[in-house]
Design goal:
The protein is an alpha+beta fold. Among the domains are: about 1-40, no CATH class; about 45-205, Cytidine Deaminase, domain 2 (3-Layer(aba) Sandwich), CATH 3.40.140. The protein is built from nine helices and 13 strands. It has helices at about 10-25, 50-65, 105-115, 120-125, 140-150, 200-210, 225-245, 270-285, 300-305, and strands at about 45-50, 70-75, 85-90, 95-100, 105, 125-130, 160-165, 170-175, 180-185, 190-195, 195, 215, 220. Strands 9-8-7-6-2-3-1-10-11 form a nine-stranded mixed sheet. A two-stranded antiparallel sheet has the order 4-5. Strands 12-13 form a two-stranded antiparallel sheet. It is globular, with a radius of gyration of 43 Å.
Length: about 300
């Protein structure tokens, strides 16, 4: 829920009275007095409109860098101040040194970069964003220190937007609007990209997508509709092959009864003619036992012709 940023003048008397009541009934422990005041949340939502160019540039930075990267953006409050709507115009990357988990700015290079901007861009740099790559998007102690430094330089009629994104699309958003005295947190912010309400689009998509469990794809557990079709086709093909095989496929897993092995019937040539018939057959097929000796005094060519 949205929260107030500053204590208004009309709230001082009631807060002062609460503090005095706390002092009258408090005990001092470890030399300290603690007073806590809980403020009522505000039921208001903000909408952030990205231009198509700004959204493409920002997502390109998030997806293209394997280290953290930071950027500024021009941002504008809606002309109708009764609307809690803000517009992101363009994205600008400033000089920085990065690692997998940090962004460091050289103050002299950064100030020179700022001075080189045209007046309209400089006066409307009202957003700071950076990527946490594949990590969570909770602001670090370094992030909070940076935010405090930026907020301290803002006048009472200004606003500023902070964003942290990662490659999964997780985000943290904070909009400090001092003129309206309100802080919008991530849950209070809707994003619109060049006229497309992304939150509504994703919500509608989720209502149409159902995840299925409990069947396999190619022998592995899976949730793909393609996997289900593949497995069904595979099983159907196996069933058809088994039916075609017919009697060749055993009906049960019970071992078959042992049968007597009969000797193989010998060729008719061996049975009818014995060794003489076999020798005749070998001679006709060109087979010889041993090596045939060639006479020393005969011409080899004439011998081969025989």
């Amino acid at each position: 829920m949205s929260k107030i940023i500053k204590i208004s003048a009309q709230d001082f008397p009631s807060i002062y009275e609460e503090f005095m009541q706390s002092l009258r009934h408090s005990r001092i422990i470890n030399g300290k007095i603690t007073f806590t005041k809980q403020f009522v949340n505000i039921n208001r939502k903000a909408k952030i409109h990205f231009s198509g160019e700004a959204w493409v540039k920002m997502t390109a930075l998030i997806n293209s860098f394997s280290d953290e990267v930071a950027w500024h953006a021009t941002a504008y409050r809606d002309d109708d101040e009764s609307k809690d709507e803000y517009y992101i115009g363009d994205i600008f990357v400033y000089p920085q040194t990065v690692t997998g988990a940090t962004v460091t700015t050289d103050q002299q290079r950064y100030e020179k970069w700022l001075m080189d901007l045209d007046d309209d861009t400089f006066n409307n740099l009202r957003m700071q964003g950076h990527s946490h790559v594949n990590m969570g998007v909770t602001p670090s102690a370094v992030d909070n220190t940076l935010y405090d430094g930026i907020l301290d330089r803002l006048d009472d009629d200004m606003f500023y937007i902070f964003m942290i994104w990662n490659k999964k699309g997780d985000k943290t958003i904070m909009i400090y609007d001092f003129k309206k005295n309100i802080l919008f947190d991530t849950a209070d912010c809707e994003i619109d990209i060049a006229g497309v309400d992304i939150n509504a689009f994703v919500s509608d998509a989720r209502s149409k997508v159902t995840r299925r469990y409990g069947y396999t794809y190619g022998g592995y557990a899976g949730t793909s509709a393609y996997g289900s079709t593949y497995q069904s086709t595979y099983n159907s093909a196996n069933t058809k092959a088994a039916a075609t095989a017919g009697a060749k496929t055993p009906a049960t897993t019970t071992p078959a009864a042992k049968t007597e092995t009969k000797p193989t019937t010998p060729p008719a040539s061996l049975v009818s003619g014995g060794k003489g018939e076999k020798a005749k057959a070998d001679k006709q097929s060109g087979k010889r036992k041993g090596r045939r000796k060639v006479p020393k005094d005969i011409n080899l060519y004439d011998y081969v012709k025989r």
